[in-house]
Specification:
Chain lengths: ~325, ~290
């Protein structure tokens, strides 16, 4: 009896982890409101059009992804990853080359297209502020690093990724076109000046909570979170001054079981209408240049692709080459 | 299965001979543990000495870096704090539970267990809301005029210690309650009759008798704290990072299995040595048994 049960349990376990059938594919993203929007804007129309079901999975986890590829047991077909990771994994041979005979890249923002990845959506790190909680809101990165003029806690993204180091250097007066290669020592020195006033956020929801509760009334956050925060009725201010862009990317892990269906899915996900639908739902920018026309001007105006006046592009290639070295330094500095 | 049904559906006791040979029954369970617990640990160990290049480079890097050593030290300091405070709060509570009337005991137990069954993340966020600068506790303190600046109770050692102690309390109260309940009250009466004052009753009679339970509870709390991830990462700052979070960074953010495996293995070895030490000092007897 016990034996039977154990075998049944193992069998069930195997059944659950069995690869998806050919008329379906598995999409992994970051969960939460963003993945809900991706499901509604991309997966539903895709299934309607092709009859291929899209199984939602996640959250994306690079350790898991690497383990799958190395073991040759991949069960994600399309994965939403950060741009710097996509660039690095592509160089390390962990991704399938994308099939641009299926995916039309002529209408995609070239900043976010490589042989192995296309943009998923793009976002900016902006200076967000809870205007109800403070007398004045910081307008520039220099303001955000100025604890004399703007006393209180400020919040930054916790993980090693494009955004915070760039902000520190811009605050220290490095011109935007001279950012790369990043002067890490200078950045950390600048970050040291406000270290005791930093509260880190590790996920978008937490950044919203920190601003809303005025635990940290201002900080560097993803622009979409400010859109969400404004919708809750809190008086917020968003400064787009030198907003730092980075894109999420769609990739196909090496050895994905349904790579062909994955290409079709990416083709649809990056086409104009689904990109516009996602942008409307999330406040992140479309990476298809035709999408803005499909939105009402009021919405389009609030997206990062319309905020290019002083926009700074994080250099994903630089990050791909230096991701590990920066990461080690970053976490060591944080723990000091 | 110690019973089986005959054709008519009546439950029959199993023949004695079947019941005596217990080993066959545990083979699947052992296999399960082997496949799902031992194999992954061995794989991780191998990766920690093989990646990125074969050798002990990962371990050298772990032990040679001031930052990582600081994280190790911090892990032990936080776990130690949490264990001591849990004992200080847990012992009186367990003692009270053991001597109070049965009905009240059930109510307190219900509260303890309910909190244990509530989602860990929800409980951690609840503490965040309570402890933050604009949170309930600071609002109350400032309302009463006790402080004029909000206290920093979260994103630091204070927050981690409070949150973790709260989560660990049931794990120390339950074993302690079991032990104290077993202590024969007449031993205390005897001590009192022989002229021991209250303090001596506690330190010379009660505490020594409760010691195995305290040791078992403390070890459990300490070991669980060593590997704690969610609460320290949400209630602590980066300056008091713990080992579990470092491992998560290695694996999830830096995708460096070698270092992640090495750190995980150091944690495992430390945990096992603590367990071995406990067995040596307190034997493998049940808490409270002699």
């Amino acid at each position: 009896m016990k034996t039977t049960f154990a075998f049944a349990a193992v069998a069930a376990f195997v059944a659950v982890s069995a690869p998806a059938k050919a008329d379906s594919l598995v999409f992994s993203s970051w969960g939460g409101t963003t993945q809900d929007a991706q499901k509604a804007a991309w997966a539903s129309p895709f299934t309607e059009k092709t009859g291929i079901t899209v199984v939602q999975d996640g959250p994306t986890d690079y350790g898991k992804l690497k383990a799958m590829v190395e073991a040759g047991e991949v069960n994600w077909d399309v994965v939403d990853v950060e741009g710097d990771y996509a660039a690095q994994a592509g160089k390390n041979g962990q991704l399938e080359k994308l099939d641009f005979s299926v995916i039309d890249k002529s209408k995609l923002d070239p900043r976010f297209v490589t042989d192995y990845s296309v943009g998923s959506f793009y976002y900016s790190f902006v200076i967000g502020c809870n205007a109800d909680a403070v007398k004045a809101c910081p307008k520039t990165w220099a303001d955000l690093f100025d604890t004399a003029k703007f006393p209180g806690k400020r919040t930054f993204y916790k993980w090693s990724a494009p955004g915070v180091i760039e902000a520190a250097l811009l605050a220290d007066g490095v011109p935007a076109d001279k950012l790369y290669p990043l002067d890490l020592d200078r950045a950390f020195k600048k970050l040291d000046t406000i270290k005791s006033d930093i509260v880190w956020w590790s996920g978008g929801a937490q950044s919203q909570q920190l601003l809303a509760s005025a635990e940290a009334p201002f900080g560097s956050v993803w622009n979409g979170r400010m859109t969400a925060l404004a919708a809750t009725g809190i008086k917020v201010e968003t400064s787009w001054e030198q907003n730092i862009t980075a894109a999420d990317a769609l990739v196909v892990p090496k050895g994905a079981p349904n790579a062909e269906a994955a290409m079709k899915f990416i083709a649809l996900a990056t086409s104009a209408e689904p990109q516009a639908a996602l942008a409307k739902a999330t406040g992140y920018a479309p990476i298809n240049v035709e999408s803005a026309k499909l939105m009402d001007p009021e919405t389009a105006k609030t997206l990062p692709d319309q905020q290019t006046a002083s926009q700074v592009n994080a250099d994903m290639n630089y990050w791909a080459d230096n991701r590990d070295a920066i990461g080690e330094k970053w976490y060591a500095w944080q723990a000091k | 299965m110690s019973t089986y049904s005959d054709a008519s559906g009546a439950i029959m006791p199993l023949p004695k001979a079947r019941r005596a040979t217990g080993f066959g029954g545990v083979v699947p369970a052992l296999a399960f543990v082997g496949i799902f617990f031992v194999v992954p640990v061995v794989v991780l160990l191998l990766r920690s000495v093989l990646e990125p290049v074969p050798g002990l480079g990962n371990y050298a890097q772990l032990i040679g870096s001031a930052t990582y050593l600081k994280i190790f030290a911090n892990t032990f300091i936080v776990s130690g704090f949490v264990t001591v405070i849990s004992l200080l709060i847990g012992f009186p509570v367990a003692w009270a539970l053991a001597i109070m009337p049965g009905r009240l005991t059930s109510v307190i137990f219900a509260i303890l267990l309910l909190s244990m069954w509530t989602n860990l993340l929800a409980r951690t966020y609840a503490w965040m809301v309570l402890l933050q600068r604009t949170g309930l506790i600071n609002k109350m303190l400032m309302g009463m005029g006790l402080v004029d600046q909000p206290l920093a109770l979260v994103n630091n050692l204070t927050g981690v210690t409070i949150g973790m102690t709260y989560i660990m309390l049931p794990f120390i109260i339950l074993p302690l309650y079991g032990v104290i309940k077993k202590i024969d009250p007449s031993t205390l009466q005897a001590a009192a009759l022989c002229g021991a004052n209250r303090w001596q009753c506690l330190t010379r009679v009660l505490l020594p008798l409760a010691m195995p339970g305290m040791a078992a509870g403390a070890l459990m709390v300490f070991v669980m704290s060593l590997g704690y991830f969610v609460t320290p990462s949400l209630l602590g700052g980066t300056a008091n990072m713990m080992l579990a979070e470092l491992i998560a960074q290695f694996v999830q953010s830096l995708v460096n299995w070698g270092m992640g495996g090495a750190a995980a293995l150091v944690l495992l070895v430390v945990t096992l040595s603590l367990y071995a030490a406990q067995l040596r000092f307190f034997g493998s007897q049940n808490p409270g048994g002699r």
